[in-house]
Predict the 3D structure of the following.
Amino acid sequence: MSQPEVIIIGAGIGGATLAAALAPSGRQILILERGETLRDSPEARDPEAIFRRGFYRPDELWLDAAGGSFNPGNYYQPGGNSKFYGAVLMRYRAGDFAPLRHIGGTTPGWPFAYEELERYYSAAEALYQVRGAVDQDPSEPPRSAALPFPPLPDEPVIADLRARLQAQGLHPCALPLGVDLDAWLQGGATTWDAFPNTRGGKMDAESCALAAALRHPNVTMLTGARVTRLCAGGRQITSVELNHRGQLRRLSAPLICLAAGAVNSAALLLASAHDGAPSGLANGSDQVGRNFMNHNLSAVLGINPLRRNDSLYQKTIQLNDWYLSGGPSGEPLGNVQMLGRVTGPILAAESGLPRRLARYIADHSVQLLTMSEDLPRPESRITLRDGQITLKWERSNLEAHALLNQKLARALRRAGWPLTLSRAFPKRSPSHQCGTCKMGDDPAASVVDAGLKAHDLDNLWICDASVLPTSAAVNPALTIAALALRCGDMIRERHLT
């Protein structure tokens, strides 16, 4: 392995996309990924293995604020959590970049407007081969390019639901998805939501961005390489300490890019404290680990004993009618989208219902997801307790989420699904974690600048969900990818020319 000129820590959406952006520079790039490549197995399409036995969940415990422990459900392998994601690749709305008044408070806004990121959104949509139809969604922001592929087809039950929602004056529209449906279904007759992409068809960080990066001979990836500490002197990261399959190693490079995910990036910076930075690296603002956000999510089921849902994947439509308004004074409420098809075994495993009852409910219901913005709060934070990650998450904006659930339930009843049930996602679900190393212009109130370089260090960039100043109310994967492409352009222009 040649001496690296750039080290990227993490091969999820942020790290893999950044590697793809930097690869054409010709510089020696080393990607350090703590996990091993996810291999195919019979469990890959087995809902009992995934949802009941937790076959793929890592053997890891975090602490909560009360001192209890929980398994967080974050995944570690090339591709990161995107190997299991629902493949929704959606842009933030233009209004998400400015301060926005919610029922639970006002968001701080971003250091730049939507227009600054727009061309990178288009580039990310091309890289991840997004399917969709942007003319159906009245909340869709301006764009410079069409989506690369047409939307996935609605199954008959979902087409009927779409028509019934339209008859109420709502605007159901295609979900933008990174899925080659034919290729996915060749690997097994399941939805892709929460199932690992081991047989192809889902456009995740490994199959798209990482594959593009590794086609360049100057890009190398080391798996089984868990970074434990960043060593610094003055304003420079001088080396990266890691455990590589039981062997302790130290590597160095002129440029270091941290993309370990919202929780683990913050934890690594905190764990790298030294005499010159006693509260952790890049933490002169005392903001590392703070402002943790995790969307308010609920599963909402519309049930009708006289109707049967025979769909296979179902995850093709969304509603944004209440995204930027809908509250009592016009406040935003959030996004509604289909869940991947919830079958009896999945519902039994997730709810604890008897299997026969769970199968009946699953087969006589449509299953949707409501998503409301969680507002940044300094007291919601990641800390370390004796080296173990501790999460204190204080949910916010819950009134808006409750109203969104009520509006959806009313629409489902009018659409012919008279009984509705809802259940909030638990803390152990990694529901779009973000915000712990927030981006901003003020070094006293943020961790990285608008180009994602750490304020306190001259050769450290952070390129994952941790930098997001706000969570918005959409799936963040495409925004992370767009930021990574923008960051890659800026690094190449300013440091690799």
